[in-house]
Amino acid sequence: MYRELICIGCPMGCPLTVTVEEGKVTAVSGNICRKGKEYAEAECLNPTRTLTTTVKIKNAMYPLLSVRTSKPIPKDQIEACLQYLCGITVEAPVTIGQVIVEDVLQTGADIIATKSMARQR
Amino acid sequence: MEAYDLVVIGAGPAGLAAAVAAYEAGVKKILLIERDREPGGILEQCIHNGFGLFYFGEDLTGPEYAARFIQRVQERGIAIKLNTMVLEVTPDKWIIAVNKADGLLKIKAKAVVLAMGCRERTRGAIFIPGTRPAGVITAGTAQRFVNMEGYLPGKEVVILGSGDIGLIMARRLTLEGAKVKMVLELLPYSSGLTRNIVQCLQDFGIPLLFNHTVVAIHGRQRITGVTIAEVDPATKKPKPGTERLVSCDTLLLSVGLIPENELSRQAGIALDPVTKGPVVDDGMATSVEGIFAGGNVVHVHDLVDNVTREGEIAGRSAARYILNPKPAPSLKINTKAGAGVTYVVPQLIHPQQMAEELVLSFRVNQVFKDQKLVVALATGQGHKILGTKKRMIMVPGEMQEFKVKKEDLWAALGQEDSSSPLELTVSVPEEGEDHDV
Ligand SMILES: Cc1cc2nc3c(=O)[nH]c(=O)nc-3n(C[C@H](O)[C@H](O)[C@H](O)COP(=O)(O)OP(=O)(O)OC[C@H]3O[C@@H](n4cnc5c(N)ncnc54)[C@H](O)[C@@H]3O)c2cc1C
Ligand code: SF4
């Protein structure tokens, strides 16, 4: 199986052609440097993304608290995580780095606050 | 009347960094003035990651990056007035500001750092014909609505402009449940990062149409659709017969940023017609003595790390001026954008005052692959090459840098007297062109 990708390693944006056979990357072409090959392998075998989004917060300056996953999670889990976080509401005060959801959907990543928010009267 | 050594206007990353750097350089009576409810500037709404890779060697979100500098400001007990809008800065460094608690404030400063950031170009600036319905907003405004205020501007979105903010918002709106139908780009390339094109558009199958624009907006109360068309890459004019109607309830504009310089203009500070920001020297000093500037107010940056660095330089220079107020030395070198280059910051170098190393920031005017970059000094005696560098790629959307060492600059200057005009040119000469003229 062939896959076409664009390397995101630098602004060159090399068009990569990746050959995947039996769950293994057997060839990468189009890359100028090694970074392109590494990217192709990661992207074909285990694509991950850091999810950054918001959850609802009560009694704070704004109605939303910005959050992120503590580490990149599998790309195909993003949708489910978002759905899950829709149902979460926290209450101020919150400190930056605080864990909001532990091991979200068994991805091994926590959802953490990226901002401190004080309690408002 | 209140009096401070240093007043910093704007508590975004540039202002925060300037205040901390000035404090570290020995100035303690510092006031930061911010019109918003909290410090952090535009970073507070940029909840995505990708900040601080250079400065901290970490991949932070906007609020996390800002929090580190807010903490540094707080730890040093630097005063900050929030919800306070600066209305005027005078050349003799009086600051007129207003807030609900104090009313009108008149503050005297020994030095001022301008760090007001930039604002978004609006639709008026690009003249799209058609009606003026609701649902046409700038990408940055939408970012604030979605990420901070918790409200989705629409369900069916067309984005005009493929800069990073537009791309980031395409993903954000999709994650929030809106349908982003397409991103249109007038140019044949995107000014956004490849990473954003892949992770914000391709990940979600959102088409990016190059050489395309919006030629009309439809709808009475609320926007109902836009007519898009392909443009001729040479003339940027819509090609007749390529028009088609796309329905949407929101049009997001991501058509560029302009430095916020009403205050600078009033203060009589010289502005650069290309960057639209103050003309600055290597210490981020403006043309008015004792007034410094850094960050997006000077020129639009793509990386916050560089904003921080500029803010720090501005803060240190302001501190030096406060501790020893004297005008800049007379020997100066003007920088110039040569072939292939749009602008160079700083516009002015004072070699007698400069730090050991100076970073020239500039943008190229087209995509260059495998081209050589040349930095040359023109003196009364002729041209000297200060450095050349082959770069694999240079794109207009990514700010370029070239470091100049003080000793190299002085070696090139030789026994120059200050009477002949000196000019440092950054250019990308066409292949085969003689560099030594
Ligand atoms: C919408 C948007 C999204 C961006 N996304 C990214 C990104 O993803 N990654 C990245 O690296 N960079 C991004 N940038 C670039 C960003 O501009 C810089 O990273 C950085 O935030 C600029 O810092 P600054 O301090 O110069 O300006 P700002 O952060 O804009 O701060 C200026 C501050 O000055 C205040 N101010 C202005 N005028 C006055 C006045 N008269 N009185 C009092 N206060 C005033 C403003 O309220 C604001 O808080 C983005 C920029 C914008 C506009
Ligand atoms: S393969 Fe190397 S040169 Fe090509 S885009 Fe990736 S990092 Fe850049």
Provide the fold topology.
The complex is a heterodimer of chains A (121) and B (437).
Chain A: E1 2-6, E2 15-21, E3 24-29, H1 34-45, E4 48-49, E5 52-58, E6 64-69, E7 73-74, H2 78-86, E8 89-91, E9 99-101, E10 111-113
Parallel strand pairs in A: 5-8
Antiparallel strand pairs in A: 1-2, 2-3, 4-7, 5-6, 6-10, 9-10
Chain B: E1 2-9, H1 13-24, E2 30-33, E3 49-51, E4 60-61, H2 62-75, E5 79-81, E6 85-89, E7 94-99, E8 103-114, E9 118-120, E10 136-138, H3 139-149, E11 156-160, H4 164-175, E12 179-184, H5 194-201, E13 208-209, E14 212-218, E15 225-230, E16 244-247, E17 250-253, E18 257-259, H6 262-266, E19 291-293, H7 304-323, E20 333-337, E21 341-345, E22 348-349, E23 357-364, E24 368-379, E25 382-394, E26 400-405, H8 406-413, E27 423-427
Summarize this entry quickly.
The complex is a heterodimer of chains A (121) and B (437). By secondary structure, chain A is an alpha+beta fold.
Largest sheet of chain B: 7 strands, mixed
**What CATH architecture of the largest domain in chain A do you see?**
Roll
CATH topology of the largest domain in chain B: FAD/NAD(P)-binding domain
Percent strand of chain A equals: 35-45%
Distance between the termini of chain A: 59 Å
* Cross-sheet strand order for the largest sheet of chain A: 8-5-6-10-9
Whole-Å distance between the termini of chain B?
57 Å
* Coarse structural class of chain B: alpha/beta
State the total count of DSSP E strands of chain A: 10
Radius of gyration of chain A: 19 Å
- Structural class call of chain A reads alpha+beta
Order of helices and strands of chain A: EEEHEEEEHEEE
- Which sheet architecture does the biggest sheet of chain A show? 5 strands, mixed
Number of helices of chain B: 8
Give structural notes.
The complex is a heterodimer of chains A (121) and B (437). Chain A has 121 residues and is an alpha+beta fold. Chain A folds into two domains: 45 residues, no CATH class; 62 residues, Roll (CPE0013-like fold), CATH 3.10.530. In chain A, 17% of the residues lie in helices and 36% in strands. Chain A is built from two helices and ten strands, in the order βββαββββαβββ. In chain A, the strands form three sheets. In chain A, strands 8-5-6-10-9 form a five-stranded mixed beta sheet. In chain A, strands 1-2-3 form a three-stranded antiparallel beta sheet, covered by helices on one side. In chain A, strands 4-7 form a two-stranded antiparallel sheet. In chain A, strand 2 and strand 3 form a beta hairpin. The longest helix of chain A has 12 residues. The radius of gyration of chain A is 19 Å and the shape is elongated. The mean pLDDT of chain A is 93. Chain B is globular and about 65 Å long. In chain B, the strands form seven sheets. In chain B, strands 1, 2, 5, 6, 7, 8 and 19 form a seven-stranded mixed beta sheet that branches. The termini of chain B are far apart. The longest helix of chain B is centred in the last third of the chain and has 20 residues. In chain B, 21% of the residues lie in helices and 33% in strands. The model of chain B has no long low-confidence stretch (mean pLDDT 93). By secondary structure, chain B is α/β, with parallel strands linked by helices. In chain B, strand 12, helix 5 and strand 13 form a beta-alpha-beta unit. Chain B is built from eight helices and 27 strands. Chain B has three domains: 184 residues, 3-Layer(bba) Sandwich (FAD/NAD(P)-binding domain), CATH 3.50.50; 134 residues, FAD/NAD(P)-binding domain, CATH 3.50.50; 95 residues, Immunoglobulin-like. At the A-B interface, strand 5 and strand 6 of A face helix 2, helix 3 and helix 5 of B. The complex binds flavin-adenine dinucleotide (FAD) and iron/sulfur cluster. The site of flavin-adenine dinucleotide has 37 residues of chain B, from helix 1, strand 3, strand 6, helix 3 and helix 4.
